[in-house]
Amino acid sequence: MKTYGHWIGGSWRAPGAGHYAVVNPATEETVGRAPEADDADVDAAVRAARAAYDGWSRTAPRERAAVLDRAADLLAERAPDLVPLVQAETGATLRVTAALQVPPAADRFRRYARGAMEPDTVPLAPLPVAASPLAPGGLIGAAAVRRPVGVVACITSYNFPLANLAGKVAPALAMGNTVVAKPAPQDPLACLELGPLLTEAGLPDGVFNVVTGSRAAAGEALVAHPGVDMVSFTGSTAVGKKIAESAGHSMKRTLMELGGKGAAIVLGDADKRVIASAVGAVGSTFSFHSGQICTAPTRVLVHRSLYERVVAALTDYAKSLTVGDPVDNSTIVGPLISAAQRDRVEAYLAGAREQGARLVTGGERPPVASGFYVAPTLVADADPGMTVAREELFGPVVVALPFDDEDEAVRIANGTSYGLYDYVFSADAGRAWALAARLRSGNVGINTVQRHPETPFGGFKHSGVGRDGGSFGLHAYSELQSVVWAS
Fold first, then answer.
1. Do residues 212 and 188 make contact, with C-beta atoms less than 8 angstroms apart?
2. Which of 59, 227, 377, 396 would bridge with 286, disulfide CB 3.0–4.6 Å?
3. What residue segments make up the domains of the chain, in order of their start?
4. Residue 257 annotated as catalytic
5. Which of 36, 193, 257, 346 is catalytic?
6. What is the CATH number of domain 2-258+463-486?
7. Catalytic residue list contains 168
8. Which residue is catalytic, options 168, 182, 252, 261?
9. Contact, 26 vs 325, CB < 8 A?
10. Of the residues 36, 89, 252, 294, which is catalytic?
11. DSSP assigned state of 295
12. Is 408 in the active site?
């Protein structure tokens, strides 16, 4: 068990408000002790980032790329040490951690090492402009140039702490910004380890800083700090709204990846193969990180002719999953992040029962000795207006809803305040493509829950503001500057 300081200005800093315990969600034992930030810690981190900005923003793209490439190498080399740490503090199963927690962090640094070398200038054709009282006429040339925003506050979620942070930090650094990171309070330890790793990779002191805290105060101080130019946040819609309100007072740029209530629409033409694909995709809500995924298809909308068939298949799927110790390779479903999150999900399920929904399977706490577990749960016979069908639970819970025609399916799918990721399953890909255009969602998967790493990622409505991913991530962490000259 290690006790950490904040990572500020290229070195560890003792916290002003002591430490707090980071707890393993499966064993309820302490993994390590994280620093509790006070206002002075946050101020020191922002000042360090501000002091480093001029030098880093003027560093040649090729040099920035070399640092990010080296960071990717070091993450890959340190995976044997980082995987157990991330696994212990997140409660994710070992197979998920080894494949999808640590390696994507290295991949993202590698991707944005290339990104640092992408062209940042869009030349515009010269135009003849007539003389005016403002200036003489002539042939006027111009270019649109992407410039770094400045100091970026990166506030991340607890489900994929290291990978999520890398997805923000790597494009921000590639564009020449400096960063103050504030990881989620539940699992910040691997994010703190990123500080010395980036220094070893050659990143100058102050370009990347990390402060942590168990309470909202540290994040609030960071968002409100006048030295921060942009806030990049991944988390709940409720917290995102508070951040947007605070950031708006000083016109900070924001990038918000917020909640989701993904709908998987299974059309009536689905054949055996498509139904199997849909069941596997929707079943990922049960089996992949215990449903703690904002993109999860947590609602399955099924044509009435197929409804009972799909419900039966999902029931069998959920019952087949092993719930237990996430370190055991036979385990598919691990714990939720905390007792508070487990209790929250259980409260939603109790509310569903009270409102008349049927819990086909699950709904009871699994018989485990310790940890914050919720059994894979399928809710059927729910009305689209029920709370369980409208709000994000962030647990291994799927709500099944029947529909009679495409218009009804679209109304149900679009009938929440979210719009992050929806899915369409059909034997006719052209029909699914056409239906996707009617969904108020930032992302639509057709017959798959697989992601494409270069697509712009973000949401409609209350699911967020802005897009990242691929080259769009570089755009997110830059400002456009127009440069005009007389030819």
1. yes
2. 396
3. 2-258+463-486, 263-454
4. yes
5. 257
6. 3.40.605.10
7. no
8. 182
9. yes
10. 294
11. T
12. no
